[in-house]
Amino acid sequence: MIRKTKKSVRAGKSSGNVFADLGLPHPEQEFLKAKLTLQIYRLIKRRDLTQTEAGKILGIKQPHVSALMRNRSGTFSLERLMDFLTALGQDVEITVRPTRKEHGEVSVSLPPADATDKLLRQESSSG
Q: According to the CATH classification, is domain 29-90 in 3.40.50.300?
């Protein structure tokens, strides 16, 4: 008879960035890309676009849209993801300000999902 042993699982407090918690290179950049990709995903879904339609808007082929929809943004730069957002009718604003810490940090502020829904409903009813 095979005897199973229980392994203990260690859990620690998250830093708020899963990429940093996993020790991946450039975790801040990967976290930003994930947030931008999530917003692109939400916009495509809320507009009920097919991947082919989204690809035409974004200027990329359907397989690349498929990768984005599965949160595979690795091949796209932050700049390219911001270009996708502007192509989807979003304003992208970058703010630089002094920090009180030794090193500054990078962050992205996205509207709440319900605010994005409201804006998209207004766009579709006025067009």
A: no
CA distance 19 to 29: 9
Angle formed at CA 112 by CA 63 and CA 116, multiple of 5 degrees: 60
pLDDT in tens, the chain (127 residues): 667 777 776 777 888 888 888 888 888 888 899 999 999 999 999 999 999 999 999 999 999 999 999 988 778 999 999 999 999 999 999 888 898 988 887 777 777 766 655 555 555 555 5
- The token pair at 88 is 């989807």
